[in-house]
Amino acid sequence: MKLWSHYHVAQSVDEALRLLAQYEGNARVLAGGTDLLLDIQQGNHPPQEAMVDITRIKELTTIAVDGDQLTLGAGVTHTEIVKHSTIQIRATALTESCGVVGGPQVRNVATIGGNVAHALPAADGTLSLVALRATAEVASPEGREWFEIGDLFLGAGQSRVHPTQQLITCFRFKLAGPGEASAFKRIMRPQGVALPVLGCAVWIKLDAAKERFVDASICVGPVSPTPIRASEVESALVGQIANDVNIAQAAQIARESLHPRTSKYRATAEYRVEMIELLVRESLMVAVERAKG
Known about the structure:
Blueprint: E1 4-9, H1 13-22, E2 27-30, H2 36-41, E3 48-53, E4 63-66, E5 69-73, H3 78-83, H4 85-90, H5 92-98, H6 104-109, H7 112-117, H8 124-131, E6 135-140, E7 143-148, E8 153-155, E9 158-159, E10 167-174, E11 180-191, E12 193-206, E13 213-221, E14 228-229, H9 231-237, H10 244-257, H11 269-292
Parallel strand pairs: 1-3, 2-3
Antiparallel strand pairs: 4-5, 5-10, 6-7, 6-10, 8-9, 11-12, 12-13, 13-14
């Protein structure tokens, strides 16, 4: 099967957008290609007239730290994220989630922007970016615009980012400071590739005495068509002492408020409900331990 007729290597975001516009909906952005090429080969997408390779665009492959802010280029690979020392220490959930995507060969080419653009509610890196309250910059012919990351998802596999007209350029989020930490846990089902049954990313902030929860973000997936925050669990934690009893109560709230469906490829709804409680509890316990230092 011929997957494309023309192949372009863009040197800038503007050039990539011009090339996409030139083909009037018959060109796609290509970075790692670990999802897109399989989709075309399997008939989920028609062959394209052109591919626009964005791997040579420097701004898309840069990780920049500015004080407590980290800017992560959409073309940064999972391997690069896992190896980055600042992310390891101050955005640990992202390191842990990117470290379980596929195998080493996949992580060496698959990009964090592709993980988000594919808009799957089980995407590991996406879950951590949601928990870290990341924002995303999207470039289009009209200019660039920042979005809360959760606003990019319209449904399972449906993204606000138009695949033939726009591209994600970067993500930005606050790095953990004193009394703050994050963690990621996943249960997977080996099935040719490691298929996530459930993943859970958490970020927490403790008070100055490192005794009580001041703030929390929790993202569990897939439990709905889009990656979502577990807002009821977050609210229940704020103001509570960061101990095993209150963490267990929060995990019970997660069990009662999140409603995954049965999936023939992942697990039954009953099993996944049990695992939600386990993952939330374990992720919070690890994050608290890290935040207490």
